[in-house]
Amino acid sequence: MENISGTKIKICGITNMEDAQVAANYGADALGFIFYNQSKRYVEPEVVKTIITQLPPFIKTVGVFVNQSLEEIIKIRQETGIDVAQLHGDETVEFCRSIPFRNIKVVRVKDKSDLNEVAQYTDQAILFDTYSDEEYGGTGRSFDWEILKGLSLPTKIILSGGLTPDNVSEAVKIVRPYAVDVSSGVEDKPGKKDHMKIKRFIEAIKNGH
């Protein structure tokens, strides 16, 4: 299926082989695996290693970390074979730059003032997610996408936070992101995906409506 918008699609919070293969088969560009053990979508590295060996060759794999040490991130990459680290905590610019492979920095948005910190991450892709006092992600809530409208950055913009099959097309039209990232919006329950929602989410982007 042709992707009219050109927007890349990441399905995050994958915990099992079936969900991974369904997402890949429907046309996801990347899959995300959460290695933060306080998450409801946490998955063991050995499970991820097995899943990755069964994926098509052009699917990117992303490990999600929250305030974890450089040593742990590198170790998990070596164990699993993930391509990219997604940093969802309070990691500094210096920490991001110390990671010896590609990474994405998450900025949790409450209002426009939260964009002030973005400029310092000049060599990272930036993922915008919804701010929450309780959780570092996976809240299922969106923020005001108009905040990002026309935002010019030297890095790729990835949009997350409360995206669903019903609103993702509108979000893409407003923000024009490089990629979108969804987890709870295509779930049956935390850690288990709804395969029809994955299909509808991807079709909404690839059909441009």
* CATH topology label: TIM Barrel
Q: Could you give the order of the helices and strands?
A: EHEHEHEHEEEHEEEH
Considering the protein shown, what is the CATH homologous superfamily? Aldolase class I
Query: How many helical elements?
Result: 6
What spatial form do the alpha-carbon principal axes imply? globular
Rounded to the nearest angstrom, the radius of gyration is 16 Å
Structural class: alpha/beta
Q: Give a short account of the largest sheet.
A: 8 strands, parallel, barrel
Quaternary organization: single chain
Per DSSP, what share of the residues sits in E-state strands of 2 or more residues?
15-25%
Strands in their spatial order, largest beta sheet:
1-2-3-4-5-6-7-8
CATH top level is Alpha Beta
Please name the CATH architecture. Answer: Alpha-Beta Barrel
State the low-pLDDT regions, or none: none
Looking at this protein, list some descriptive labels.
TIM Barrel, 6 helices, alpha/beta, 209 residues, 21% strand, 10 strands, 8-stranded parallel beta barrel
Can you put this structure into words, describing what you see?
There is one protein chain. With 209 residues, this protein is α/β, with parallel strands linked by helices. It has one domain (8-206): TIM Barrel (Alpha-Beta Barrel). The protein is built from six helices and ten strands; from the N terminus they run E-H-E-H-E-H-E-H-E-E-E-H-E-E-E-H. Strands 1-2-3-4-5-6-7-8 form an eight-stranded parallel barrel, surrounded by four helices. Helix 1 (17-26) links the parallel strand 1 and strand 2 (30-34). Helix 1 runs parallel beside helix 6. The two termini are 14 Å apart. The mean pLDDT is 89.
